[in-house]
Amino acid sequence: MESTRQQKISRLLQKDLGEIFQLMARDHLQGFLITVTKVYISPDLSIAKVYLSLFGAGDREEIFKRINKTKKEIRHQLALRVGKQMRIIPDLAFFIDDSLDYIENIDNLLKA
Alpha-carbon distance 83 to 89, whole Å? Predict the structure, then answer.
C-alpha cells in the first residue's frame, strides 16, 4: 500500500512526465500521442515505474525503444521541473500499458 507521500509524488511525476512527453512527441515523434497512465514510486523514492499508453500510426515497439534510449534526457528534463521539490530524482522504468487494448478486445468479444 502506498503512503500519502508516495501518492503525492506519483501524481506530481505523472503530471510533469505527461508534459515532457507532449513536448517530446511534438518535436521528435510526429504522429504519436504518448499518455502517462500511472506512476508507481518505490517506498524509498528511488525508482519510478512509469506506465505509458502509445497511440498513433506506426510501430509502437520502435517508439518504446526510442523512449528507453532517451531515458537519461527525460530524467534530466524531469529534474529541471521537480528539482526544487525533490532531493533525489528517481530512476525511471518505462512499461507499456496495454489496458486499453484489453478493454477493446473485451468489447469486441461482447459484441460478437
Answer: 7
Q: Which of 49, 55, 13 is nearest to 35 (CA)?
A: 55
Tell me how crowded residue 29 is: count the other CB atoms within 10 A of its CB. 18
- Which run of H or E residues covers position 51? strand 47-56
DSSP state of 87: S
CB 95 within 8 A of CB 51: yes
Taking the model in full, what pTM does it have? Answer: 0.86
Helix/strand/coil percent split, the chain, to 5: 55, 25, 25
pLDDT of residue 59: 82
Total domains in the chain come to 1
Domain that holds residue 97: 4-111
Spatial distance between the Cα atoms of 21 and 36, rounded to a whole number of angstroms: 8
Q: Please give the grid coordinates belonging to residue 87.
A: 532531493
Which CATH number does the domain housing residue 24 bear? 3.30.300.20
